[in-house]
Amino acid sequence: MTVTRRTLLAAGAAVGALSATGAQAGQPRYRWRNAEMVGGGFVPGIVFNPSEPGLVYARTDIGGAYRLDKRSQKWIPLLDWVGWDQWGWTGVASLATDPRDPDRLYLAVGTYTNDWDPNNGAILRSRDRGRTFKAAPLPFKLGGNMPGRGMGERLAVNPYRNSIVYFGAPSGQGLWRSRDFGASWSKVESFPNPGTFRPDPNDTSGYNSDLIGVVWVVFGARNVIYVGVADKDNPLYRSTDGGATWAPVPGTPKGFLPHKGVIGNGFLYLATSDTAGPYDGGNGEVWKLDLATDSWTNITPAAGAGWGYSGLTIDRQRPGTLMVATQISWWPDVVFFRSTDNGATWTRAWDIPAWPDRVNRYDIDISESPWLTWNETKALPEQSPKLGWMTESMEIDPFNSDRLLYGTGATIYGTDNLTAWDRGETVHIAVKARGLEETAILDLISPPTGAHLLSAVGDIGGFRHADFTAPGKMLDTPTFGSGKSLDYAGQAPEVIVRVGNPVGSWTRFGISRDSGVTWTAAATQPDGITGGGQVAVSADGAVSLWAPEGAAVHRSTDDGATWTAVAGLPAGSVIEADQVRANVFYGHAAGYFYVSTDSGASFTATASLVVDGDVRFKAVPGVAGDIWLSAGKTGMFRSTDGGATFARHAGLDEADNVGFGKPAPGRTYPAVFTSAKVAGKRGIFRSDDGGHRWVRINDDRHQWAWTGAAISGDPRVYGRVYIATNGRGLIVGDLS
After folding, report:
1. For this structure, is 443 an active site residue?
2. Active-site residue among 61, 117, 210, 699?
3. Bridge partners of residue 66, in order along the sequence
């Protein structure tokens, strides 16, 4: 069949529909969990089902979607089945839960609309609340991690006829509709405006120059539909004949983008900003449209205050009560406004009666995620932890006026006594993100002593996990905005080094000599550095080698007090230390392998490796000169002579990382782990016999999209594996 622009039929294939284990015959059985951080990423959407109490979902920009378990109040991930080739499906651009049939769930998935994501988007539909899905592929891309991702929701189910589902598309694709519960989709050709706003029309990457598009759909009375469009001149359209014809709503305020639209109490409420967000926004307004008279009223809480508005919610149990959040006010904090008289008057979540003193209507409990202070103490009027930032999702439970959930750039907060606000009492806010793990793991290590796991994490630095039942401790001194790389000394594993991109400090290098309990920041760093890059430490812990972004590879023999450029190794090289010989370091760049035998002072090219993919390699613990090198589509290579020569492992079609763990019972060589393709099948593999035989240890229900950044076994627990994901945090697998 030919797929046209006008009509798209679903493939009809069931995805994510295996059993709870999903294991195939002959596979070892593994139990999977997270090394918990509790939160960690942007939550742009929270959606309550309007007909079933307690049914609520959350979407993230790169880490999939979640359903809140009513009994445990823990978020359950719904997209762990997404595989390597469809990694973009973990970016959720929108979510809708059926108001008539709560078992039905819809997700619009796809991470980027530019060429960063090679695949088109899809609409996923579920009949069992996200336990299994079927996919309807779209003929265009979606942007779950693009500008404007907090606007919405783009998906909406018709409450009068729930077989009809609408979707507002980006990239000039307009408005789409399904008449068969999401199985097939066609463009609504009568809808006149696909949107005109681009954050930066001159951006050649396509990230900021794409059209934001049609951003939300809401239903009024029967046959009445309102649609928000990213067009500052014509931001709101309406149909009064069930979507057959459309026209701009008369008198709609112009000059801003319609971030949110909510209908209730006889009004359409509108929150607007001058940008698509989520990182910016300097002006905006809040309005209400009387649906009976078509008259508009400006109800902006603080006109011209230097922010726009995005988060918007109404109390379904108390007509006239609504809340709105600023979009965005980085400093000193997000501002929540609440009204109990339909926007005639407002009160703020916090005030500054006398500079810089601050009076809050709330307190915050971050015991679930103590790292939310970022190891910082703020000066008033700023506070740590913050009330929030990037708060585009804010929802009052439609069945409980006291319950509010809201998303930030790092977690979900919530309260169960919201109406205390109206009585002048303290609103108790707490982290409500247990189970929601949305982080990109850039590196990890599992030393043989001390904590089992240390990580380098995008956006929130990194953690030390002594166990996995509570959030790890955020690494400090220095605290990184994004951790990039870690290493431990093979013969002195209590020595650990790490590098990253700093926050609140220029320092990009830290060293610990007590297994990561305490850290010392480098006193200096090489000139010209633009990013953390990669780090390695000699087997005896005496020499640190650093390949930063933007500068040459350097070495230090005094824990970062001074640095000297190395000779013979290109900038940007991948670097590692031999795990036994303290004077030996290795490097790879541009198809050549390099070896140093003078503690990293100078390098010599040894082997030529023509590869198709990113190179990552590790030296085997306890075995001098034994190196495994993964090279993407070129597969896996091994050297047993210290990098002088390499031989390709024939059993691996592709290999994207490598790590080592405790040997299998009765064996002495470490277990080898890799994210790879074997016999045409993608997965996480383990070999107990030095690579002669590989066994897949994950299953089709547990794939976590892209898993190429890092992997490691545990040197103290046979079979245990740690997997870095790009959005689902740190995955821990144990033999069950």
Report:
1. no
2. 61
3. 58, 77
Query: Among this protein's residues, is 459 annotated catalytic?
Result: yes
Q: What is residue 303's predicted lDDT score, i.e. its pLDDT?
A: 92
pLDDT over 80 (residue 658): yes
pLDDT digits (tens, 9 = 90+) for 673-690: 999 999 999 999 999 999
> Which among 397, 443, 459, 559 is annotated as catalytic?
459
Cα-atom radius of gyration of the chain, to the nearest Å? 27
Please state the rounded mean pLDDT for residues 290-313.
96
Asked whether 513 and 495 are in contact (CB, 8 A), the reply is yes
pLDDT digit string, tens, across residues 140-189: 999 999 999 999 999 999 999 999 999 999 999 999 999 999 999 999 99
Residue 607 near residue 639 (C-beta atoms within 8 A): yes
Instruction: Give 4's pLDDT tier (boundaries 50, 70, 90).
Output: very low
Burial class of residue 152 in the structure, from the number of CB atoms within 10 Å of its CB (0-12 exposed, 13-18 middle, 19+ buried): buried
Which range is least confidently modeled, 296-300, 380-384, 503-507?
503-507
Contacts of 699 (CB under 8 A, 6+ apart): 18, 21, 22, 23, 24, 27, 30
- For 257-286, give the secondary structure using H, E and C: EEEEEEEECCEEEEEEECCCCCCCCCCCCE
Per the CB < 8 A criterion, the answer to whether 519 and 475 are in contact is yes
Query: How many DSSP H helices and E strands does the chain contain?
Result: 0, 62
Domains, the chain, in order of start with CATH, read 28-39+610-736 (2.130.10.10), 44-214 (2.130.10.10), 475-608 (2.130.10.10)
Instruction: Quickly list DSSP for 425-479.
Output: PPEEEEE--TT-B--BEEEEE--SSSSSEEEEETTTEEEEES-SSSPPEEP-SSP
